[in-house]
Amino acid sequence: MGIPQVRRAETVTCYVSFPTEPGTGPLRRALRQAGIRILLPVTVPPGDLDWVMDPGPSSKGQDRGGKSPEGAGELLGRTAIARAHVLIVPALAVDVLGHRLGQGGGYYDRALPLADPDAPVVALLHADEFLRPAQEHGPGQGLVPTLPHDRTVDLVAVPDGVIRIERDR
User: Fold this and answer.
1) In a domain, 169, yes or no
2) Which residue would you say has higher pLDDT here, 97 or 132?
3) For residue 62, what are the β-bridge partners?
4) Residue 60 falls inside a structural domain
5) Beta strand 155-158 pairing with 161-164
6) Which domain holds residue 142?
7) Nearest to residue 70, comparing CAs of 11, 125, 109, 15?
8) Looking at residue 123, which CATH number applies to its domain?
9) What is the dihedral of CA 55, 61, 65, 66, to 10 degrees?
10) Cβ–Cβ under 8 Å, residues 122 and 156
11) C-beta separation of 107 from 90 below 8 A
12) By three-state DSSP, how is residue 11 classified?
């Protein structure tokens, strides 16, 4: 929780991590101990994210849509993401321009436009998943393909610390 925006937040989005992803269990526990509400995603047809309150350690979550470990509980609606002050999102990779590579389902592509545009987006990554361009790419060259609707990441949390994405590259 070394990110000031997270410490000040009343509500954040997060997710239940896969074993191959940076673990969100300790983060979720720390957020709950700090009194921060956590919204967890639940996939719903036809391919959208709905949200539930994090039930805490008594529930390991369930998979309602077959795509990822998720929260269990009363669905709050697709627009519940708008309540979040910080958006903690999964990613396979993020480049130095903040372009995020997801798992290809487009769930977050459809959910993030419903969020507060001022809420920072934080991607949790392993160190080697933060992509820096080789010198031949030059400045301003992103490594993750993007579309006009893609929302960029503002911060990347890796084991060694937090990287702020600089927009003037």
Assistant:
1) no
2) 97
3) 70
4) yes
5) antiparallel
6) 4-164
7) 15
8) 3.40.50.10420
9) 160
10) yes
11) no
12) strand
Whether the pTM exceeds 0.70: the reply is: yes
Using one digit for the tens of pLDDT, what is the confidence trace for 102-116? 887 889 999 999 999
Number of domains in the chain: 1
From residue 120, how far is each of 57, 63, 87, 156, 165 by CA, in Å?
26, 26, 6, 11, 11
Residue 127 lies in a domain: yes
Among candidate residues 90, 80, 82, 78, the one with its CA nearest the CA of residue 119? 82
- Cα 110 to chain center, whole Å? 13
What per-residue confidence (pLDDT) applies to 67?
42
Q: Distance from CA of residue 135 to its chain's centroid?
A: 29
Which is it for strands 130-131 and 121-124: parallel, antiparallel or unpaired?
unpaired
